[in-house]
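Data availability (excerpt). The following record was deposited with the supplementary files.
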Amino acid sequence: MSPSLAGLFAGLLLALVAAVGGLGWFLLALLLGVVGYLVGAHLEGRIDLAGLLPGRSRG
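Predicted structure:
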């Protein structure tokens, strides 16, 4: 799936959440989407989140 198509689906899903649940649920869906993106990018190796985890060293 291309990134633009994934972005389209994400936008449509967020619009649906905003229409049905209101602002609070929209913000929750947006926050969970950002967390999901960060975890996915970390698993793919595009970003390194090791510095954010307490007790973990790079050495």
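Summary of structural features: The mean pLDDT is 83.
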